């Protein structure tokens, strides 16, 4: 259990990309990490783009980011909703300041853009938000996964094995 004792918070909102939320959670749990979900409301069930549910353990405002070793931001259409919550942006900014692992895939880059944490970073994402990432000061690279220190980014569901292999390495090293 490579990640025993590690705690990760994953963000969730309606229309998340089902695989981009659940695959990372399950892989991290397989490695012994505790993964909890934060949504707009604690106890609310959020539905993914393809109908898979996910229940939030905590409301965004109730999360004590200092208690977590890493944060995951799923893709889908949820990031466009997530980035509207100041508490979400504060969580990402805290992880950035503390140099704790931040995982983002596909459209999740929108949350990091709004948190203003991408200036000077190397990242990837779905090509659809490449301009947004570059306009936020990032160097966008078309690779399955890009690791820049504690920031691990990926493009889309077929890249999930590469994404999680690298995210687990980064989290294990912290």
Explain the overall architecture.
Helices cover 33% and strands 22% of the residues. It is of the alpha/beta class and 174 residues long. The strands form three sheets. A seven-stranded mixed β-sheet has the order 5-2-1-6-7-11-10, sandwiched between helices. A two-stranded antiparallel sheet has the order 3-4. α3 (86-98) packs across α4 (109-115). The longest helix is centred in the last third of the chain and has 14 residues, at 160-173. 49% of the residues are buried. The mean pLDDT is 98.
Morphology: globular
> Main sheet, how many strands, which sense, barrel?
7 strands, mixed
Straight-line distance between termini: 15 Å
Integer average pLDDT: 98
State the total count of DSSP E strands.
11
Tell me the layout of helices and strands.
Elements: E1 7-11, H1 18-30, E2 34-39, E3 45-47, E4 53-55, E5 58-59, E6 70-73, H2 78-82, H3 86-98, E7 102-105, H4 109-115, E8 122-123, H5 130-135, E9 139-140, E10 145-148, E11 151-154, H6 160-173
Parallel strand pairs: 1-2, 1-6, 2-5, 6-7, 7-11, 8-9
Antiparallel strand pairs: 3-4, 10-11
């Amino acid at each position: 259990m490579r990640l025993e004792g590690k705690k990760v918070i994953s963000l969730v909102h309606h229309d998340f990309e089902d695989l981009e939320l659940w695959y990372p959670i399950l892989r991290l749990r397989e490695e012994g990490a505790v993964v909890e979900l934060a949504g707009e409301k604690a106890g609310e069930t959020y539905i993914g783009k393809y109908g898979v549910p996910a229940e939030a353990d905590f409301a965004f405002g109730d999360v004590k980011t200092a208690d977590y070793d890493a944060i995951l931001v799923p893709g889908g259409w949820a990031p466009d909703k997530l980035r509207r919550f100041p508490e979400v942006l504060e969580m990402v900014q805290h992880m950035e300041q503390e140099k704790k692992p931040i995982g983002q895939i596909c459209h999740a880059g929108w949350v990091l853009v709004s948190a203003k944490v991408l200036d000077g970073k190397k990242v990837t994402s779905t090509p659809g938000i490449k301009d947004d990432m570059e306009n936020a000061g990032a160097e966008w690279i078309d690779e399955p996964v890009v690791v820049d220190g504690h920031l691990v980014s990926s493009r889309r569901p077929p890249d999930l094995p590469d994404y999680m292999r690298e995210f687990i390495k980064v989290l294990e090293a912290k």
